[in-house]
Amino acid sequence: MGFSRKIALVLALCMAILHFSHEDEQSCNQPEDYSINAHSGIRRVLSAAPSTGTTSQQAILDAHNKVRKEIPSLEPMTWNATVAKFAEEYASERKKDCALQHSDTQIYGENIATGAGKMTILDAINMWCSEKDNYDYETNTCGPGKACGHYTQVIWKNSTTVGCALSHCVKNDGIFIICNYYPPGNYIDTKPY
Ligand SMILES: *[C@@H]1O[C@H](CO)[C@@H](O)[C@H](O)[C@H]1NC(C)=O
Ligand SMILES: *[C@@H]1O[C@H](CO)[C@@H](O)[C@H](O)[C@H]1NC(C)=O
What we know:
Layout: H1 3-23, E1 34-37, E2 41-44, H2 57-68, E3 78-79, H3 81-93, E4 109-116, H4 121-129, E5 135-136, E6 141-142, H5 149-155, E7 161-168, E8 174-182
Parallel strand pairs: 3-7
Antiparallel strand pairs: 1-2, 4-8, 5-6, 7-8
Helix pairs in contact: 2-4
Residues 158, 183 line the site of one 2-acetamido-2-deoxy-beta-D-glucopyranose.
Pfam family, one: CAP
Signal peptide: 1-23
InterPro entries: Allrgn_V5/Tpx1_CS, CAP_dom, CAP_sf, CRISP-related
């Protein structure tokens, strides 16, 4: 391939990226990687490292602490970078399949969620906390046939630090979300949804 043809190809690619970027409301200046998919144009890349996505650490803490505040004896959660590192590593591992599958950690509590498109960590926390309606404080149980284990993880007295991560999965615009908690509380999260 001649030199000028190579340049033309590079230009054409850059034009294509610019074109698709606009459709996706992204700009070429963003430090995000993209892969180009022949069928659906541009896709967010798959090589991007797990992070908290569009939700800030503070927003993650606020969402948890708003719910913890409803129970007077609870202390607020703080961000734990060690825990967040673990969450990132596991989110990275699940990029390959976005399976709704827990890590086998024994040292952290854990809530997970999967979704697609623009799902955020905040969406996941709100979803987990909506299980509050299924929980009975008096007996510390979920209603019959109901899930409340994600909510109870958020309100365990001992779980005062948290770290979360989100990854973009390889297939179908999938999103994998995980929050880990230290120290862990009772672990009764067995009902995925
Ligand atoms: C953060 O988590 C680690 C366990 O991974 C723990 O040893 C450490 O004490 C925690 N930090 C705080 C402030 O609790
Ligand atoms: C919670 O923390 C307290 C004080 O650190 C400890 O005594 C207790 O065993 C913990 N409870 C659980 C369920 O881990």
